[in-house]
Write a structure and sequence with these properties.
about 5% strand, two-stranded antiparallel ribbon, mainly alpha, about 50% helix, disordered C terminus, globular, about 775 residues, 5-stranded mixed β-sheet, disordered N terminus
């Protein structure tokens, strides 16, 4: 599950990875929560952890001496920069960007001039810099910071406040942005400077984090084609530009296809079974689409493919025909007509394979694994181990649902289809645990959940969070702003954009950086610049005068994103290019986020904030007991679902031949023979919406969710061993987690960081135990 949190290893990595994603940011996107049943075969929509968020491309570039930026047509007057707030921001990037004032018409002229400015600065570094940390790494950090700050504003606004004009502006500047990325990543002058530092007298005096950054840049440069010459380098660069455009097109097609579907319903019989909160949202959506006077009780209602609208239909609607229509539409998004992503998938896979060959690798998965914590074999072994231990449980999950539907006399019991499974699984859950999501929502009002989350963070990590709304510009009236401090001293800040806005906001959830902690970019010597993050979710919005009443899985999502933000904000690294989420191997970056999810189910934590929004009454003990009892309901199914995505991703980027006879959709079905207990429907085109790997940075890396979940479950088990109600032990263990996992970030290899915290290497015992899939040990003889 992921929330955009990116691993930016270096100036080179940042310039390349951030540029070549559809949104161009560094974020991680959270996959669908564990409660999404097997018939909902899509990962959460992406932008990007981060890539996050959100992401992972490896460009190449021309030498400084012959590089030319793409500019306005010859003889065409450049637009005036007078009053261009975005360009003014580039000259003195601040921790609070002018989110409320940037307009689409500012993007191209501001970015074009900024690229020209940075081109000159980069040339000066290449020609005049000396091979020392302060001589050229620090100047590069300043260049990277300017670009990431300004480009980040553009792509962030595209993700949360999309318009046709902004989309066109971002798409127009992407080729030029990619050119600069290629220019930087393949600079032989920079590569030579890195080598000289690596082999020079200053090396031994550098910190471990600084040395790791140098080594990472040297490896990154090779993977980005610094060693290519002539036609090979030209083809590599051409491919990178095409990949950037394909990523953008894929993302736009998916967003447009999602926005295009609106199902208006007037007959109350057709929405029978759907919870009142979902009907209120559907009525509110109908009003925004011109149906004045729509109400939750009387309609009309408008349902969309946005998760807060779609999921209640699949889980609760008695109208089987409506479930079938929405399910088949959801699974075939962006798979036909002018929005068909199938040819783009094929081309992306062809280009990635060609790039790998140009770099001397057999396939793209090998390129990806060069910068991961895991090896390819290690990733496949983990996935297969988890598959073996969850498959039989998934089979039983489906058998139980079928048997229950039959017991209830369901007309479809003997022909249960994918659009029936979620509905009957929810009925079985209600019967088995006498627990419904709607029972819990009144106890999870967003303000109370935030108070509980902030209290937990203070308890574990010793930092305090306070609202600071109104102190900085925001992009929407619902966006909140908070400051983080430790014993009165400022530490960091973050924005929170919590609600779904399908008409302008990309789906999913992610965290990204606004700016990083940095020694050299502080306001004064000895005072580093403090980090700022933004967290974006798509949870159920407030309806009428009521606050946002969250589903339990939305609470998990919020905690998850905060885990990413904490790693960014509580970093102890002062070097900007290795601080926070930067430099963390992609398959370890989910450790803090998934770690935080575990606290949602801790009794003291959950009951500390779960108060009825009207009466203030605490969550009853019997409801808490039911939550825990139902926590691992259909755990085998949920495990297999994520394993299918991960195994399919690795197959696509290793053994699959995009020019061979098998289509990607046929491969999806082939992999599913091992990972799906119910064969997919014929029209299933899930891959056309799999933005994680085609527009979100998880290509040959989706396994990272399970890899990191092993780490996070094992880390949380250390707190369990100490005693979750032992405040002193939790405080001590929490400070250790903050000093290692959160504090060191990319400054040390994740294997070393984990061992510093846990005292040993990771084990799969905790993840299987937490999921209820651990194999009982035989009794002693």
């Amino acid at each position: 599950r992921a929330y955009l949190a990116v691993t930016m290893r270096s100036a080179s990595l940042l310039q390349n990875r951030l540029l070549l994603t559809s949104a161009g940011q560094a974020v991680k996107v959270r996959p669908t929560p564990r409660s999404y049943t097997a018939n909902c075969r899509t990962a959460a929509p992406v932008r990007g952890v981060h890539l996050r968020n959100r992401q992972r491309s490896s460009p190449a570039c021309r030498r400084a001496t012959n590089f030319t930026l793409m500019a306005s047509a010859v003889g065409e007057a450049a637009p005036s920069l007078e009053g261009n707030i975005l360009y003014d921001f580039s000259k003195t990037p601040a921790a609070s960007p002018p989110f409320d004032s940037v307009t689409a018409d500012m993007v191209v002229p501001a970015m074009r001039q900024l690229l020209k400015d940075l081109e000159e600065e980069l040339t000066a570094v290449e020609t005049d810099a000396v091979a020392t940390w302060s001589g050229f790494v620090e100047p590069l950090e300043r260049i990277v910071d300017k670009m990431s700050s300004v480009w980040g504003v553009c792509t962030h606004l595209k993700a949360v406040k999309d318009t046709e004009a902004l989309r066109k502006a971002v798409e127009e500047i992407i080729p030029e942005r990619v050119n600069f990325s290629l220019r930087m990543s393949q600079s032989k002058a920079l590569y030579k400077l890195y080598e000289e530092v690596r082999n020079g007298p200053e090396w031994e005096s550098l910190t471990e984090a600084q040395q790791r950054l140098i080594d990472s840049n040297l490896k990154e440069a090779k993977l980005q084609g610094v060693g290519l010459e002539g036609d090979a380098q030209e083809q590599f660069n051409k491919n990178q530009k095409e990949l950037a455009q394909l990523s953008t097109t894929f993302s736009n097609n998916l967003l447009d296809a999602t926005k295009a579907y609106k199902k208006f319903i007037e007959d109350p019989a057709d929405v029978a079974g759907i919870p009142k909160t979902a009907l209120a949202l559907a009525a509110q959506t109908a009003v925004t689409n011109g149906k004045e006077g729509a109400t939750a009780d009387n309609g009309p209602w408008c349902f969309t493919l946005d998760i807060p609208s779609y999921l209640p239909v699949m889980q609760h609607c008695k109208n089987r025909a409506l479930r079938e229509e929405m399910y088949t539409t959801y699974l075939s998004k962006a798979s036909s007509g002018e929005r068909d992503n199938t040819p783009h998938i094929k081309r992306i896979l062809e280009l990635r394979k060609e790039q790998a060959k140009l770099l001397g690798f057999e396939n793209y998965a090998q390129v990806s694994m060069e910068q991961k914590m895991a090896t390819f074999d290690g990733a496949e072994e983990l996935l297969e181990e988890l598959r073996r231990k969850s498959y039989d449980a998934a089979v039983k999950d489906l058998e139980d649902v079928k048997a229950f539907a039959r017991e209830q006399g369901a007309a479809e019991a003997d022909d249960l289809r994918q659009w029936d499974v979620a509905f009957w699984a929810e009925r079985l859950k209600e019967a088995k645990y006498t627990l419904e999501d709607e029972q819990l929502r009144p106890y999870f009002a967003l303000p109370a959940v935030l108070d509980g989350l902030f209290g937990l963070i203070d308890r574990i990590f010793g930092v305090q969070i306070a609202a600071a709304d109104g102190e900085v510009p925001v992009w929407h009236k619902d966006v909140r702003y908070f400051k983080v401090s430790r014993d009165g001293e400022p530490v960091a800040a973050f924005y929170l954009d919590p609600y779904s806005r399908p008409e302008e906001k990309r789906g999913g959830a992610w965290m990204d950086e606004v700016c990083s902690r940095s020694r050299i970019l502080g306001a004064s010597p000895g005072s580093p610049r403090l980090p700022v993050a933004h967290m974006v979710c798509n949870q159920s919005p407030p309806v009428g005068d009521e606050p946002s009443l969250m589903r339990l899985q939305e609470v998990e999502t919020l905690f998850h994103e905060m885990g990413h933000a904490l790693q960014h904000m509580l970093t102890k690294q002062d070097e900007g290019l290795i601080a926070g989420i930067r430099g963390v191997e992609w398959d370890a970056v989910e450790l803090p986020s998934q770690f935080m999810e575990n606290w949602v189910y801790d009794e003291g934590t959950l009951k500390g904030f779960a108060k009825h929004y009207q009466t203030g009454d605490p969550l009853p003990q019997d409801l808490y007991d039911k939550i825990i009892a139902a926590k691992n309901y259909r755990a085998g199914t949920m495990m297999l679902r994520q394993l299918h995505f991960a195994m399919l991703d690795l197959e696509l980027h290793s053994r699959y031949d995009p020019d061979g006879p098998m289509t990607v959709h046929e491969l999806d079905r082939e992999v599913g023979k091992k990972t799906q207990v119910m064969p997919p429907i014929e029209s299933d085109r899930f891959l056309c919406g799999f933005a994680h790997i085609f527009a979100g940075g998880y290509s040959a890396g989706y396994y990272s969710y399970k890899w990191a979940e092993v780490l996070s479950a094992d880390a949380f088990s250390a707190f369990e061993e100490d005693g979750l109600d032992n405040d002193e032990a939790v405080k001590e263990r929490g400070r250790l987690f903050a000093d290692t996992v959160l504090g060191l970030g990319g400054g040390a290899h994740p294997s070393k960081v984990f061992e510093m915290f846990r005292g040993r290497g990771p084990s799969t015992d905790a993840i299987l135990r937490h999921a209820g899939l651990a194999t009982p040990q035989p009794a002693a003889a």
